[in-house]
Amino acid sequence: MNTPYFDIRNFSMEIEGMKILKEINVKIPENQITVIIGPSGCGKSTLLNSMNRLIDLTDGVHTSGEILLKNKNIFDPTVDVTELRRRVGMISQTPNPLPMSIFDNVAYGLKINGVRSGQRVSSSVEQCLNTVGLWKEVRDRLNAPASTLSIGQQQRLCLARALAVEPEALLCDETTSALDPLSAHHIESELLSLKNNYTIVFVTHILRQAKRLADYVAFIYLGEIVEAGPADTFFTDPQDPRTKAYLEGVFG
Questions:
Q1: What domains are defined for the chain?
Q2: SS3 at position 9
């Protein structure tokens, strides 16, 4: 692996004294899709939320160890958390469009980041909606409320909104689990097309989906990284018996 985008070193996290993540060590390659798999409640989403410090919003959190983003610890006191979250966007499990128009949803991030040129905003909105395959579906109703879109369209809108602020990485937390199969396929296709330009970390408990998407895989169980490696060898030649048992459906 070349220099990783994230290098997570001995990272542990507890909430009000309960240990959630235990001595996590894993490297997330740049410009690939890393899929984090594991049973429900094993710490997948917590690890994901740690990568852009969304865990800061939870009371009683204590962390130790490091998460290096291109060799800088994101928990360093000098880190601008707002800028970190611009660089590392999040696409949640359930679509969360803002209570405003389709256009303004995508333009929102641009405006709060200081973009004032109407022409630049309009151009960026069109480009991002095109990137997620939504432009042709909404170009005649950009002023309509985002809530009028289907759930699948809303999730693609949220992806467009994240891309508008020009992030380096996208964290996807069960991003397709609330969608119908066709909409899920749209999102997967878009992520595969984006991976050459973005570092993508995707959490899922669906092994079929992990096999479709992953360049690199990390298996987390009971708050620990059991095994991680390139997808082509991870799925065909797991080294840890717990990984093999999980892939065979013994538990999960």
A1: 6-99+168-247 (3.40.50.300)
A2: strand
Instruction: Give the model's pLDDT for residue 110.
Output: 79
Q: What are phi and psi of 149, to 5 degrees?
A: -75, 155
Beta-strand ranges (E) seen in 16-112 are 18-28, 33-37, 61-69, 72-73, 88-91
HEC string of 203-243 equals ECCCHHHHHHHCCEEEEEECCEEEEEEEHHHHCCCCCCHHH
Residue 172 amino acid letter: C
Q: Which pair of structure tokens corresponds to residue 64?
A: 């130790």
* 60-102 residue pLDDT tens: 999 999 999 999 999 999 999 999 999 999 999 999 999 999 9
Q: End-to-end distance of the chain based on CA atoms, in angstroms?
A: 29
The pTM score is: 0.93
pLDDT at 116: 67
DSSP string, 171-204: EEESTTTTS-HHHHHHHHHHHHHHTTTSEEEEE-
Residue 169: name the closest of 101, 67, 97 by CA.
Answer: 67
pLDDT digits (tens, 9 = 90+) for 229-240: 999 999 999 999
